[in-house]
Amino acid sequence: MPRITPHIDSKIPERKRIVNADIFVSEAAISEMLDHADRGASENAEVMGLLAGRMYRDENGVYAEADKAVTAKLHADEVSVRFDHSDMTPLFDALDDLDFEYVIVGWYHSHIGIGCFMSETDIRTHSSVFGGSGFAVVIDPIKEELKVFKGSENGPEEASMVVMESHTQMA
Ligand SMILES: [Zn+2]
């Protein structure tokens, strides 16, 4: 089973962030998500996946590093998407193939031409999986938009993101 974001702050290792942002996403993960969203859009379907990485904390709170985007078989149409619960094996296999210690720091999904926001369903999905923590990336390949939201006590709010170039990746 994948390791979901630790909800208890004390379990999150301390490390100072290099620049002020809520989440640091690798270039590789960004292109995986954008490619996936593009492929979906060509079939008029939303896509969805998980972000594997690490959570850290410093004096400004908790932040995340997302190194890889992983996905599995989906049931999708223009307005909704969910994992195929009859066969989650490919998702777990993809996670098992990751050659680094990770937690699931968040998830991503696409919207087809309606812009990037957290719908009521998205908010419910987010809080049932991540509680008040974790990140949600929303991509609209038609509008060429990408936004990231972070969980908070009052529901998801927009978060700041920095893209890490491969050679500057913090390992
Ligand atoms: Zn959505």
Structure characterization notes:
There is one protein chain. This protein is an alpha/beta fold and about 170 residues long. The protein has helices spanning about 25-40, 90-95, 120-130; strands spanning about 25, 50-60, 60-70, 75, 80-85, 105-110, 135-140, 145-150, 155-160, 160-165. The protein has a single domain, classed as 3-Layer(aba) Sandwich (Cytidine Deaminase, domain 2), CATH 3.40.140. Bound molecules: zinc ion (ZN). Zinc ion binds near residues 109, 111 and 119. Zinc ion binds near residues 109, 111, 119, 122 and 138.
Ordered list of secondary-structure elements with their pairings:
Elements: E1 23-26, H1 27-42, E2 48-58, E3 61-70, E4 74-76, E5 81-83, H2 89-96, E6 103-110, H3 120-130, E7 135-140, E8 145-150, E9 157-158, E10 161-164
Parallel strand pairs: 1-3, 1-10, 6-7
Antiparallel strand pairs: 2-3, 2-6, 4-5, 7-8, 8-9
The chain binds zinc ion (ZN).
